[in-house]
Amino acid sequence: MNEPSLPDLLEALGELFLVPGAFDRPRFEALGRASWVGLGITPALQGLIIEDTTDLNVAYTGLFLQGARGPTLHLQASAQFAGALADPERAADLASIAAVVRIQPDPGVQADHLGAMLVLLAHLLRAVAEVEGKRAACLEGAAADLLQKHLQPLAERVASGLEPADVHPFYRSAGRLLAKSLQLAARVLT
Known about the structure:
Blueprint: H1 6-18, H2 25-32, H3 42-46, H4 56-65, H5 77-82, H6 88-100, H7 114-130, H8 133-161, H9 169-189
């Protein structure tokens, strides 16, 4: 089995933010053992390795779907920045980025959802590692565009919204891991 990579971490985080209660403990434990992880990521990763996951669905719903502890912390960029259910310009831009890596977005998930964008970035980074030359430069440009224009601004808001003490510790750690992971992705792309 290959050592988990940054794209594996981004994909696991994407799934965690996409699906209520989606937590694959062995996957995150394997990520925690990866040789590259000591880059400020370890404490946040350790915060995700929990025994009792029974209340994660309730915590997810309360944070991201119903705003049980205050305003709903939306995971879609259109809701965060445009106050709308959809943003056609943003959707078109994200579709063009996905086309670079030949990914068809899941029709049941908004392209500007944090989880969907993390999974897309994971695919882009994997593709960059597999090719060279002009194709690699094109993929790197698409990944950088996704990261700078779409992911980082949304991730900053989400991570900040997950910092209060009354947020479930699992999701507070997920927010911190999100921020650290995107910092690492930005370093990889520079």
